[in-house]
Amino acid sequence: MANKYTEAPIDILEMSxxxxxxxxxxxxxxxxxxxxxxxxxxxxxxxxxxAVISVNEDIVEQAKKCDEEYxxxxxxxxxxxxxxxxxxxxxxxxxxx
Length: 97
What we know:
3 helices
């Protein structure tokens, strides 16, 4: 099944958070696209795996603001996509909750 956002120039699904941040630094992908990819994956697989408790409905707008902030001063920010058993934070390092 081809997905709209996972047809990005790179495959972040096999990358670590550090590798994803490096791709952002290189301009290969932005936070909005990353958020959309993860939302798409949640939609595709959560019925089967029941791993996501809730989804941040504002994540795309928050990711856009992160992109704007990053473009202005190259400062990274945190974007929380969802509450899961292993929560993903889009930031310099990963944290498991």
